[in-house]
Write a structure and sequence with these properties.
Layout: E1 2-5, E2 16-21, E3 27-32, H1 38-48, E4 60-62, E5 68-70, H2 77-80, H3 89-99, E6 103-107, E7 124-129, E8 139-144
Antiparallel strand pairs: 1-2, 2-3, 4-5, 6-8, 7-8
Pfam family, one: FERM_N
Protein name: FERM domain-containing protein 3
């Protein structure tokens, strides 16, 4: 599993913290740029464990629809995972509370019933319209109580 953290939702700054959870549930973290390719993570993990045969290993991630995908080494990590909002929830909450927004609108949420437990924010009323029967879409409004 790969998880991202950055200092604010607006910046998605030049550098983000990336955490990779291994099969034994241990985690390895590093900082990556938005344009960092998947091969960087593979190399980082192989170097951490002093593995020489990197061609035998890969990284998989799970999208919001619970589908597993191989992280492509020659493509940007950020672009491959851009459809996932799950890994941005903590970032959204932090930015919201620091800035004190009264209204927040999010488009292309890609949410479904799976996200019911995790998308609420204390002090905000949630209004959402998920796209039914098709992939993608969806809008959400958070309104300050």
């Amino acid at each position: 599993m790969i998880r991202f953290r950055s200092s604010s939702i607006r910046s998605l700054s030049p550098e983000m913290k990336c955490t990779v959870r291994l099969l034994d549930d241990s985690e390895i973290s590093c900082h990556i740029q938005r344009e960092t390719k998947g091969q960087f993570l593979i190399d980082h993990i192989c170097n951490y464990y002093s593995l020489l045969e990197k061609d035998y290993f890969g990284i998989r991630y799970v999208d919001p629809e619970k589908q597993r995908h191989w992280l492509e080494p020659n493509k940007s990590i950020f672009k491959q995972m851009k459809c996932s909002t799950e890994n941005k929830q903590e970032e959204l909450e932090t930015c919201t509370y620091l800035q004190g927004y009264d209204l927040i609108g999010i488009m292309e949420t890609w949410w479904d019933g799976f996200y019911d437990w995790s998308v609420r924010m204390e002090g905000y009323r949630l209004f959402r319209k998920d796209r039914q029967g098709r992939r993608g879409g969806g809008v959400t409004l958070y309104v300050n109580d």
